[in-house]
Amino acid sequence: MPHVWSHLIFGGEAMKAAGREEAIGNDFLRRVFNLGCQGPDILFYHRFWLGPLAGVLPSLAGDIHRFRCGDFLLAMIDMAAGRPSDDPIIVYAAGFLTHHVLDRNMHPFVFYRSGFRKWNHQRLEVALDALVVRRKLGLEAWKTPLAGQIDVGGRLPEGVAKMWDHLARRHNPERTAGLSPEVWHEAYRDMKRALRLFHDPWGVKRALTLGRTAPMTFRRRYPPLDYANEAHAVWRHPAVPEETHAESWWDLWDAALEDARSVLEKAFSYLESGGDVSARAALAGAIGDVGYDTGKPCGGGYVIRYAEPIL
In the chain, what percentage of residues exceed pLDDT 90? Predict the structure, then answer.
């Protein structure tokens, strides 16, 4: 997955491209939108300090990335339909859509270039995030706090939490059986805790944790590698090795932006249509049913197996 900064910066660009910047014009709604731009990744942070013992939410996040992706997203937009234009659910859902679109366009590149060694996926994403922050914002990620960008208070907006509870139970009743409705608020708070922990401009936290935070912490300097493939070296789809590419990270970003513009335009057309069936069908067609990780049809049996890591 592209990392936190990439998702919220991309989401803002996508809303501008779709002519919907006014929807996130006030500070609170912008932060709700930024949080929505993190998509299902918020669940990966639940009890992150426990690692493999964190519980069900990280596994649920993985399921949402791979199975029935279109159904989940369309159901989310259905829940936002008919609400007032300033309802936080609308901008949260819009941000969530941009997360999916960026992932499905960028993730094959990230998987192929990071490989399967533990934490290398995160290391590459964090390095790419640093490049995005420098290029798009003119800032250095290592010294720029991030948690405040998604801080909507001590709890999720209640409608957003209820939406998560409904969609997760509908999408995966087995994993969610017995879960408290409070877990969605917990995951959000844990994500903020993690981002504060990983903001470590002087390396103190990395030292105190014996390097455990290093893969998720921005560095001042990175090894001189072509993280973004600006040389346009050939790379392969990690699930379909005969499918070759030479796009850079920035080429993929631009393609994803056009993809997101189209999806958002259709989403807002449906949201404002009063439930028009043809508008919903157009949105469903734009979303499709493709995985966040592969960008390929969810039911196609695509498995990520191939890589040529640069790290």
Answer: 98
